Amino acid sequence: MNKSILLLALAVLSAAAWWLAPYFGVAEYSAQIHSLRLPRATLAWFSGGALAVSGLLMQTLLRNDLATPFTLGVASSASFGAFICFAFPALATTIWAPQLLGFICAISTLLFIIKLGTTRLGYSGILLVGITINFVFGAALMIVRHLAPPYRMTKLEHWLMGSIETSDFDSSITIGVISLLCLSLIWSKRHDLDQFSFDVAVARARGVNVAKLLTVGLATSGLLCTAVVTQCGPIAFIGLVVPHALRPFIGNSHRHMIPACWLLGSGFLALADTLSRSLLILGRSSDIPVGIITALIGGPAFLFIVLRKSTKYSH
User: What is the value of pTM for the model shown?
Assistant: First the structure.
């Protein structure tokens, strides 16, 4: 399939998912389409694209198909930083405190992982470190939950399952601006990323500053993930599944993969959020957290991709 046609199709589907999403949901609230649902659909659209590109960068720079901010513990550390501010509002001295503390935790985790990968374990052992970090921050988060005021627990637990809830465009604008700045930076490095993904030694021989590329790329990936996690909570599988789903059709060229990942990720999360608002389980009038929907769809989808690859290589 022609890559330009595929990108155009993804653009149309992604835009359609964003445009149509506000019109689905509980009928009683249909009059609130533009005041409530459009900001939410916009937030979902930007968040999905940011998570997909963040996963693509991690997989490329760490040369590991399972590497994402979630599998490496970056998302759990960002969640921990933001959760502290949400659980204890007295600690949030500014409106940006959750984002700032989440970013500090995420970048600290990334620096720790990079240090271990380049000095001791090598990049093949990074995944095990990430799993360990996930357990550590998961335990720390449980401690914060135990100490948090009981009246805040319902909202906090909803956030922990991945929840897109907003009544204005402020969150969308914040994530949108961060995403556009990060995309501009990564787009300028697309040729370096291509050479790095082919062979690190070749990239270095051709003048690519590998250390700088790793630092800039991983920091950008962490910023994209943190911007979403601190606002919407941990929404898994998008950064893992989307790059794998596109590579058989797009290849490894980041000139095509970056926009394709953004478009598919944004459309996927917009549709998942539409489902979370439209499916009412056991008579409950509240939305299903979108993180549950992405896990239910993304988990089997990733398993299918892995099994398909193993079958292909076995033949």
Answer: 0.87
